[in-house]
Amino acid sequence: MRKTYDCVVVGAGCWGAWTALRLRERGRRVALVEAWGAGHARSSSGGASRIIRMGYGADEIYTRWAMRSLADWQRLFEQAGQPELFQRTGVLWTARAGHAHIAGTRAVFDRAGVSYQALAAEEVRQRYPQIRFAGEVTGIVEPESGALLASRAVRAVAAEAAQLGVEAVTGRVLPPERGERLEWVETENGDKVAGGAFVFACGPWLPKLFPRLLGDGIEVTRQEVFYFAAPAGDLRFAQPAMPVWIDFSDERGGYALPPLAGKGFKLALDRHGPRFDPDAGGREASAGELAAARAFLRERFPEMAEAPLLEAEVCQYGNTANGDFVIGRHPEMENVWIAGGGSGHGFKH
């Protein structure tokens, strides 16, 4: 039995690492339990980059959460001497005229004071000639938004937490036994970590830890991301000419990021893939998804039609039925809290 902590946080991804840091800042004695290390490659917080943007249509709560989140990230990066972990690329949204998401986003931005620029169809075409749009689209630009260097950012949070006294425990936690109150969590190597309260922020592993509670509530799906080599010396596909781009005019849900952190031009299709096991699922790119990404690339970025594939990543979404998060107390264990169901957008909050 390890010593008893005020709070035990299980999972050192984005949500778990920040939770441990915040609890420690409030004077709690905290243990952060993680099987593979903060921001590891198979986590939903892993990988080179994540978009951080304020636009959420009419869902004002997410806009305000993202505003607060970005400010917190930037403060932490400055304290850590790593301001480059946030890349202010700007974020471009495009959609057909009258699209509800664009209208709702602008209304929320006006209320919340988010800086943005509204672009008519001709302005979109003139400002971003490297992108071939699907017909007449209007746009919104968030000039203060951009991308976080994901794995490195999570490790920076965990390092700050450790510096303040959060104790790291390495081990994979077993599903907790049922009861009114949890006394400790046990790892596969036999360690028991006792605490007064427990927060499980385990991303796609939550349904395995709480199968009865979350087995049908969080569906884990496979998501593929591709990095292509932009034409040598062509600055149209790098920042500042190329922002993060999110498109609502195409049902495939394509989005793209300029090269960041030594990676290539990032392209993915934001749609739920097949069910995925985060432990046993293969991490190799599939021929079908690569073909779909290449088709999108040819249509939207004609000058990159034959761009070589540099690398691919396979991660996972932990999807809820409506895309909202699962954050709250366990209904049967009074001192257990669960934070998950990121649904592909949890990192930015």
Describe this structure in words.
- This protein is globular.
- The longest helix has 21 residues, at 60-80.
- The chain has helices at residues 14-25, 60-80, 100-112, 121-127, 150-163, 206-209, 211-214, 287-300, and strands spanning 5-10, 30-34, 50-52, 86-87, 91-96, 117-119, 137-142, 146-148, 167-170, 184-186, 192-200, 219-228, 244-247, 254-257, 265-269, 309-319, 326-329, 336-340.
- The protein folds into two domains: 1-48 and 149-218 and 320-349, FAD/NAD(P)-binding domain; 88-144 and 219-317, D-Amino Acid Oxidase, subunit A, domain 2 (D-Amino Acid Oxidase, Chain A, domain 2, 2-Layer Sandwich).
- Strand 10 (184-186) and strand 11 form a beta hairpin.
- An eight-stranded mixed beta sheet has the order 6-7-5-13-14-15-12-16, sandwiched between helices.
- With 349 residues, it is of the alpha/beta class.
- The chain contains eight helices and 18 strands.
Question: How is this structure best summarized?
Answer:
26% of the residues lie in helices and 27% in strands. With 349 residues, the chain is an alpha/beta fold.
Strands, total number: 18
Tally of distinct domains: 2
Poorly predicted segments: none
Q: Mind summarizing the main beta sheet? A: 8 strands, mixed
Structural class from helices and strands? alpha/beta
Radius of gyration: 21 Å
Strand order of the largest sheet: 6-7-5-13-14-15-12-16
The CATH homologous superfamily of the largest domain corresponds to D-Amino Acid Oxidase, subunit A, domain 2
CATH architecture of the largest domain: 2-Layer Sandwich
- Tell me roughly what share of residues is in helical segments: 25-40%
Give the termini separation: 34 Å
Compressed to H and E, one letter per element, the order equals: EHEEHEEHEHEEHEEEHHEEEEHEEE
CATH class of the largest domain: Alpha Beta
How many H/I helical runs?
8
What does the average pLDDT come to? 96
> What is the CATH T-level topology of the largest domain?
D-Amino Acid Oxidase, Chain A, domain 2
Query: Quick one: overall form?
Result: globular
β-strand percent reads 25-35%
